[in-house]
Amino acid sequence: MKKPNQDATQTITEYAAAEIGRGDEGGALFDVLSSLKSNMSRRNFLQGLGALALTGCGAGSGSDSDTGAASAARSQQAVANAQAIVNGPSGSSSFVHPGLLHTQADLNRMAQKVAAKASPWIDTWNLMLTSPYASTSWKPSPQAVIYNAMPGYADNCGYLYNDVAAAYANALRWKIAGDTTAANTAVAIMNAWASTLTQIAVSNGNYGGFLRAGLQGYEFANAAELMRDYPGWAPADFAAFQNMMLNVFYPLNGGVASGTGAALAVYASWDLLATAMVLAVGVLCDNQTIFNQAISYFQQGVGNGAIENLVVHLHPGYLGQTQEAGRDQGHDTLSIAMLGSICEMAWNQGTDLYGYDNNRALAASEYVAKGNLIQSGTTYYSVPFAPYYCPTNSAYDTVFSTAAQGSTRPEWALIYNHYVNRKGIAAPYCQKFATSHSPEGGLGTGGNSDQLGYGTLTFQRDPIAQGTPPSGLTAPTIAGQIVLSWWGTAYATSYNVYRSTTSGGPYTLAASGISDLLTYTDANLPAGAYYYVVTAITPSGETTQSSEAMGVSGTLLYTNLTFDQGSGTTASDATGNGNNGTLLGGATWAAGKHNTAVQLNGSGAYVTLPAGFISGINDFTIAAWVYWNGSSNWQRIFDFGNNSTRYMFLTPRSDSGKVRFAITDSGGGNAEQRIDGTAALPMSQWVHVAVTLSGATGTLYVNGAVVGTNTSMSLSPFQLRGTTNNWLGRSQFNDPYFSGLIDDFRVYNGAMSASDIATLASS
After folding, report:
1. CATH number, domain at 400?
2. Residues of the chain with pLDDT > 70: what percent?
3. Burial group, residue 159, by CB count within 10 angstroms (0-12, 13-18, 19+)
4. pLDDT value at residue 394
5. Is residue 7 included in any domain, yes or no?
6. Within 10 Å of residue 155's Cβ, how many Cβ atoms?
7. Which three-class secondary structure state does DSSP give residue 315?
8. pTM (predicted TM-score)
9. Helix H or strand E encompassing 589
10. Could you tell me which of 303, 446, 450, 739 has the fewest CB atoms within 10 Å of its CB?
């Protein structure tokens, strides 16, 4: 049998995930990647994933077509690349140390609480001491090559995760209690592995090694980060450990370092564990480039571990439906555990991923916590679920999976203590989970090898004195109603909503006594703009107001590019909202339907609008006058998105031969929610085209008449979030540019009625 190679230049962009149904000691199931055909259509490149065979321990292996020489060359190059990064000019001494999951201030707090025998710190400490992994007599079992679910090879990954758990527990014993025997044990474990491990095996069709590199990579880095200032760890030995992390673990980053990631071909937990490992290696090795790779991927990556893709739907009350919610709760909770670790490690280096995009990480955490908590008896809380096209299965998830529901992992103390006791933000379901599962254990004491555990020792904080005022208020229009959501206040018992017809007030009370969920629907209002603030009622009184959010009843013109400038490269937004267009790629001016229009030549000319300009809108109307010269399919009137997996577009003619509006947040043609017309857009004449969305109903109009309807729409600009590529005449794909003219381009907040569209088309 051919020996598996550590092909570090292959990223999981090339593969699709398939569950192998194999558990580790902690009961977690892992994904193994199977080959994804490189010649798939870009629109349907994920549709074949469901046909991939599942592989399991002892099952058949995917074929490995690499030659030994090619494999070795790629592996050597990857190692050289990793070493160049740490040796290059990107190295930085600006990192906080220790500064991964725990800072020195954290360790001081732990030591003080344990010395004072305060609960739950002392309870967790004593629990850890009962674990065999905390024994100061632990002997390491280093391996030269790690195999995980590799056909033809005995699994030996347990040696790795057992030794990592022992290194971490002994490192805590030294840091908290000053136990030098434990310190020497931790150092001995890490020295043994640094001098022995050369490879974590992967091969085509068998990728358990990627998982081990991610999970045990971030954990091992954390143990080493705690020990880096121990006088008994020789500098040369610490450097050898850093080199192991760079040369063996870091190259198996699943594409996080390159930014390509797994696209949407693998589940979120896979991406997240790779991100955690990359971030941890960056800090451990004082390398700003590697650290930045993880941060950038988390914020802007294309895979399911990037935060915008991890939360696939933001429900009212900020319950963030997660990417694996329809799969099973074992993996869903794993995603949250990895999410918390990533956010905490970044926080300790001064980067706030917890608060990124209006606390999107909290939205995910609250959703998963609620869905896995017992409400009463044996009945779990219910959570909302929007249909989600899962590219890994090439099928829609339609319900919250109850498989492994109630899964517990040592993750909730971290998330709860950050948001509630560090920031003063309410996190009611994370809090319920954290308080009902205390003390948190680790491997061998109620945890598993996926997390280091003992969070009620390491992350527990004293209760915050008072909460912060409500924050993050939004007020999108959904199905014609203004739906408010906000983040709550620690210790709040209820909330008040205030409304005004003038920005800045004065406000009048619109609703009171709101407790759970933190959402309010304001309906049956006269058409117009409304301005809202929220306060919390706490034991010490009413808080100050939240920041203001605007909502719209009816419709409100939000962006209007009249294209009447006739010269220059700026198409001014006539609404005064600043959503100006910029003419690029040879776009010019010409006579239009009304005065002048923008002329696009079909060979590189387009108009770009500001990033995120449409992200706050749910119900919408987009309308324009279009003169299409015809020619090829898939030209774009508009295309707003981030890439070829997250977008909304209008094309005058799709491959069906008809005008089409489509929107997706998970990529591929099968994932699109579409409205098809009855024919292609008429050519060589001025045509008025419009698309509206009201709640779940999307409607497509040509010359004021309805040509298509879809009553099962769950996506909207609000769900796509901060789109960065907002174009007229250009596609997110490598499609032909638009050939023709566009005039009077309009975006409304709210859905216009059919009669309003007809009036607009007749103007």
Report:
1. 1.50.10.100
2. 87
3. middle
4. 82
5. no
6. 15
7. strand
8. 0.88
9. strand 588-591
10. 446
